[in-house]
Amino acid sequence: MLIAPKVVQRRVWLSNPNKFQNDIIPIVKAYMNDPEIIRMSMEMSAEQPTVVINQRRSHASIKKLLDFIGGDMQLYNNVMNSLRSLFVLTNDAIYCTLRYDVLMACHEANIRAITTNDPSHELVWNLDACNRTLSMDERRVENIRKFFDKVSRDDPVHGDIAMILNDPFTSNMIASRLLQIMIEATQTERFGQAENTTIWTATMLNLGAHARRIVQQQKFRIPKVEANVTDKFMSTLNSYILNDAIRSLKQDSEEPYQIDEVEFTEENLVALDDSEVARKLICHYILNRLAHMDIQALSKIMPNFVASLKRNANYDYQSEVMDSLHVTYRSFFHSFVGILLRQHQITRFLTTRKWQTVIMNDFFLPCAAIDSAAYEQVVTFLLNAFRLVASSGRAGSIGDSFSNLGRWLETLYTNRPESTISEEKNIVLRGTFAQIVSDAGVFSGGRYKIRQEDIPTVLPYVQPVWAETQMDTSS
Q1: Record's superkingdom (predicted)?
Q2: Which end of the chain has less Cβ packing within 10 Å, N or C?
Q3: Rounded to an integer, what distance in angstroms lies between the CA atom of residue 392 and that of residue 407?
């Protein structure tokens, strides 16, 4: 079959919308459905941002789209219109990532016919520099402020700006920066001086969170952050941050000290129900405390996260239109487990009873009983944590921690959110349960095998897997 030269194909795409859609959709889907792209979009705390960006930018779909467009501004606009429509239809923020990446790929390829005519190019270029360092220095912030100053109040470009800010990597970078501003203001007691910067950063985060509504309704004014978030939720979070700072200063002192307990109010929970800014902040605060191994702070804040999840239970992750709350919380669980599996964190978890109580008993198990994404992440965590111990050959205090493994597995399975777990996902999870029980039976000569009386309902659940795969069932 002869393939027409690209210049001819582009004329056809411009004159035949059906042909355009038929040829563009497979390219877009290849990016959207790539497991690695999906995994990267869920990382709320990337360790190597430049590697992630380069990996995304070198994706075959990006190269194909640049070849497809060929510097033609009308084709570029048609591609952007398709991404907007698909984003409105699904609320999948990876369409925002693709929109961002196509423009930056044009910038890197020096396709000036595109970059000089896309009014959001200056913003994306500055944000890309921020994303590569996971920071927003004064020069970049000033450039971004000047960009917004040039955009008129009801300019339709706000729809594109909102999509760009809704790219998960960008929104998490902004959320991380917002939390850091709050931490620095607390530590230096400069709340008043930081207020304008805090509100401006929160407004950027909020604009991205409203991207779908802005594009769908064609109402292009920048939405204000809800007063409940700026006046109450962020004030409560500041109190948590202040208590963290006091504990850090006083922990090595022999002098007694007292910290006023922070009350997480109904209004704070409503903020988590309604505001992506509040959700992103609490997620990044918890991840920050986990990275700093502050188990005391985690024990104070994580029950509030559980309460929020409980208020919004039984979400179907297979639904056609994604729900922002649950997508954010799914990314959070993925990122939390990723940090917990780092060397220092996993060692502390496996050797310290308080860590097991706070993280597994008071957080993982309740969340897993409510939310299928949490359930999946916790089961996978146990498999990976056990294998880390097994591969290291370390026993002693680390190996002994798995005396709780059977009880954890039984609790997970007994309380699973069954109605929201698809049959396909259940097959995968059954295999993971079976592998954990089997691994426990052979590690360290069977020293840590799980007692049958500890897993009375898990055993019949996993036995079909053992029968099909001839897995070692010496446990």
Answers
A1: Eukaryota
A2: N
A3: 23
Q: Which two tokens stand for residue 246?
A: 């006091």
Q: Give which of 390, 420, 419, 422 is closest to 405, Cα–Cα.
A: 390
Give the residue among 66, 90, 86 at the shortest CA–CA distance from 21: 86
Question: Position of tokens 């795409």?
Answer: 13
Q: At what angle do helices 17-32 and 73-90 cross, to 10 degrees?
A: 60
- Cβ atoms within 10 Å of 333's Cβ, excluding its own: 25
Give the tokens for residue 48: 């190597």
C-beta of residue 128 within 8 angstroms of C-beta of residue 53: yes
For tokens 């349960």, what's the residue?
A: 433
Asked if residue 313 lies in contact with residue 419, where contact means CB atoms within 8 angstroms, the answer is: no
What's the CA gap between 473 and 441, in Å, rounded?
Answer: 7
pTM of the model: 0.93
C-alpha to C-alpha distance for 53 and 109, rounded to whole angstroms: 15
* Tokens 């198990």, residue located: 365
Tokens of 352: 């310290």
Distance, C-alpha 66 to centroid of its chain: 28
Nearest to 419 by CA among 314, 310, 330: 314
**Residue 43 CB partners (closer than 8 Å, separation 6+):** 52, 169, 172, 331, 334, 335, 338
- Residues whose CB falls within 8 Å of the CB of residue 144, separated by 6 or more in sequence, listed in order: 123, 126, 127, 136, 204
Residue that the structure tokens 């913003």 belong to: 123
Please give the structure tokens belonging to residue 286. 């918890």
Give how far the C-alpha of residue 51 lies from the chain's centroid of Cα atoms, to the nearest Å.
17
Phi, psi of 429, deg, nearest 5: -65, -40
Residue 322: closest CA among 158, 159, 96, 165: 96
Residues 188-245 pLDDT 10s = 877 666 788 999 999 999 999 999 999 999 998 899 999 999 999 999 999 999 999 8
Q: Are residues 296 and 247 in contact, defined by beta-carbon separation less than 8 angstroms? A: yes
Segments making up each domain of the chain, as ranges: 1-225, 341-475
Q: Three-class SS string for 245-310?
A: HHHHHHCCCCCCCCCCCCCCCHHHHHHHHHCHHHHHHHHHHHHHHHHCCCHHHHHHHHHHHHHHHH
